[in-house]
Structures are given as structure tokens and as C-alpha cells.
Design a protein that fits this description.
Blueprint (H helix, E strand, L loop, with lengths): L2 E5 L5 E5 L1 H10 L6 H13 L8 H20 L8
Antiparallel strand pairs: 1-2
Helix pairs in contact: 1-2, 2-3
């Protein structure tokens, strides 16, 4: 299970564990790139013991960044665009 570095709007960076595997599973299941999928990614990250702050604002920011990452993944599932 690999690590991925997420970059937020204020250049804060956070490492998360298992994101590539989660995105592959969701893509293989045909999940669309929408807010509901972003929430699913957050839940799965939490299930893998990644810390996601509980505040609504923080969760919205995570959802935005994760949705952007998922959209990038959907465009190139080979993950040649990994950071």
C-alpha cells in the first residue's frame, strides 16, 4: 500500500496511505467523478487509518482535492501522472 502526497489550495501537503488502490477500485467499479465519490474516498481513507479532520470545512477541502486527484486518475488510470 503506497503513499500519496496531496497538495491543498494553500500549499499545505498531506501524505495519505492507500489512495491509489482506492481510486483504482472505484474506477474499476465505474464510479463517476462526483462529490459522492469524493466522500467515499474520504471514508475509505479513514478506514485505512488516515487522519481526516472532522470539521466540515476540512472535509470539504479534502473532498475538493480528492475529487481533483480522482479526475486526474480517470483521465490516466495507468498512473503515469503520479506526483
Amino acid at each position: 500500500m503506497g503513499w500519496r502526497l496531496l497538495t491543498f489550495w494553500d500549499d499545505t501537503q498531506v501524505r495519505v496511505k492507500g489512495l491509489d488502490e482506492i481510486m483504482a477500485e472505484l474506477h474499476d467499479a465505474g464510479r463517476p467523478d462526483n462529490e459522492k465519490t469524493a466522500e467515499e474516498i474520504i471514508q475509505r481513507l479513514e478506514d485505512k487509518n488516515n487522519y481526516i479532520p472532522a470539521s466540515d470545512r476540512a472535509r470539504r477541502e479534502y473532498a475538493y482535492v480528492l475529487l481533483k486527484e480522482y479526475r486526474r486518475y480517470v483521465k490516466d488510470p495507468t498512473q503515469e501522472n503520479k506526483k
